[in-house]
Write a structure and sequence with these properties.
alpha+beta, 4 domains, four-stranded mixed sheet, three-stranded mixed sheet, 17 helices, 14 strands, membrane, cell outer membrane, OMP_bac, transmembrane helix, transmembrane
């Protein structure tokens, strides 16, 4: 292995994943982060103790192997699996945790909840995330290194001290109660257990006996008082540290690495470039008008104080000036005869051109989207090149070829007319395919199609320096499942992005 098991599992804990888990368990990001970073080494140390038992070792080995063979993590990061198969992943994680803890789950969840200031239910959710994360890494190691159950136990044992060292002091008592063996935990006392734990231990060391000198009893009482005083000071010092130092460490703000801007419909629902409503981790629409979401001055969306991310890990922003009609109301139909997806573009509207003519297009058409963006002085071109792509809704090609169908040229002509009114604007066309066939075929085909659309626009009067084109093949699906003819038809497309305005 290039890195320790602890570091390999930690490397999966990206800021995006922490925020997504935070949204899922409905807790603040700082508290969720504290829970995850505490639960991870705690669970690794607990698994090490279980692995030293032969029957338990086989159980854990089989679980890790099962996770690996399930295909969930095949060439995918844990974040991507969490986004795409969250419910299956957490369901499996919860089942496994309950099986491993076997009756201990109540006080284990309570302990993590108290330590990180989250609810017991949220603590359960954190364990349901952390366990599959560990299993994804362990399963990969088992397959790559050909480990047996005994080899896995040996690997864990070699890193035991690293696991123990990484457990936060606030979880030492919980670790000890779980059976994690370490000298660090021998003198750990929780505040609520002073009476039940400390006093009996002291009394057992200084038992009352007939004829015991009074002076010795007095010395014992004074020793007890000093012990209690030291204990109280230690506890006070711990909480002062937690209040002023530990929390400061976990509350550092996370700056989103990438962002993507979306529009909203008339009801406040956030929708993407294809007019599909965005969904929360619970499958609910994201609405900026119902009071559950906060819009920052920079137009980022916050849920419970956390950034909200799309499936690509981009922080979601909204253009509050762009109001569109969601695709849930205006969809389209799949044409079996042609193999094309026919978008319903909504009621007809007119776009005024500077030459005095008017374009008649659908309200949800790409022409209207482009016009509104170029005509809005407040709409800016993002530096993030993954943002701002609009699907051309009436561009079709002959099957397996890069030849445009005759009806496709009308939309390209409309786009050229709009762009002529904004001479500083430049665009890029992106070609895409479904996943039928090899990428070695799909990528060149998608590139040829994007180039064909670009050449047509130049022939229709757009200066060639104002348009570029590139093919991406079977990538960036707009219909993520890509498992039906209608879905695959939507993924065979050409997109447009304004790169300058």
């Amino acid at each position: 292995m290039d890195h320790s098991l602890l570091e390999q599992t930690r490397s999966e804990l990206s800021p995006v994943l922490v925020d997504k888990v935070s949204n899922y368990v409905s807790e603040s990001r700082s508290n969720t982060s504290q829970a995850i970073t505490g639960a991870l080494p705690l669970l690794l140390a607990f698994l090490n103790e279980r692995l030293q038992n032969e029957s338990s070792a086989k159980q854990i080995y089989d679980l890790a192997y099962e996770f690996e063979q399930s295909g969930l993590f095949l060439n995918e990061s844990f974040l991507r699996v969490f986004e795409q198969n969250k419910h299956a992943l957490l369901g499996k994680g919860n089942t496994c945790i309950l099986e491993l803890l076997r009756g201990k789950e109540e006080w284990v969840f309570d302990g993590l909840a108290e330590y990180s200031n989250i609810t017991k239910e949220a603590a359960s959710g954190v364990f349901a995330v952390v366990f599959p994360l560990i299993m994804s890494v362990v399963g990969r190691i088992i397959t790559t290194d050909g480990l047996t159950a005994q080899g896995l136990a040996s690997m864990f044992f070699q890193e035991k001290e690293a696991f123990v060292e990484a457990i936060p002091s606030g979880l030492h008592s919980l670790a000890s109660r779980l059976g994690v063996q370490s000298q660090k935990f021998e003198s750990v006392v929780q505040p609520q257990s002073i009476k039940s734990t400390i006093l009996p231990k002291v009394e057992s060391k200084t038992p009352s006996a007939p004829g015991l000198p009074a002076s010795r009893e007095s010395r014992g009482s004074k020793s007890l008082l000093w012990l209690l005083l030291i204990l109280i000071l230690a506890i006070a010092g711990y909480f002062v540290y937690q209040s002023f130092f530990a929390k400061e460490e976990i509350q550092k703000p996370i700056a989103p690495l990438r962002s993507e801007t979306f529009g909203i419909d008339k009801n406040g629902v956030i929708v993407d470039n294809d007019l599909v409503p965005l969904l929360s981790v619970d499958g609910d629409t994201l609405n900026v008008k119902n009071g559950t979401l906060e819009v920052t001055p920079e137009n980022f969306i916050l849920l419970n104080g956390n950034y909200v991310y799309n499936s690509n890990g981009d922080a979601i922003k909204v253009d509050t000036t762009l109001v569109v009609t969601p695709k849930s109301l205006i969809v389209g139909v799949y044409d079996e005869a042609t193999g094309n997806f026919i978008y319903d573009l909504g009621p007809e509207i007119e776009i005024p051109l500077k030459n005095g003519t008017k374009l008649k297009v659908g309200e949800s058409s790409v022409e209207n989207k482009l016009y509104k963006f170029l005509n809005d002085d407040n709409a800016t071109v993002s530096e993030d090149k993954t943002q701002g792509w609009i699907t051309l809704d009436r561009i079709y090609f002959e099957k397996g070829k890069s030849s445009l169908t005759p009806e496709s040229k009308q939309q390209l002509k409309n786009l050229v007319l709009i762009l002529k009114d904004y001479p500083k604007a430049k665009i890029k066309l992106g070609g895409y395919t479904d996943n039928a066939g090899a990428q070695e075929v799909n990528q060149p085909l998608s590139n040829e199609r994007a180039q064909a659309a670009m050449r047509t626009m130049v022939l229709l009067g757009l200066k060639k320096e104002r348009v570029s084109a590139e093919g991406y093949g079977a990538a960036h699906f707009v219909c993520a499942t890509n498992d039906t003819p209608a879905c695959m038809a939507q993924n065979r497309r050409v997109d447009l992005r304004v790169v300058e305005k």
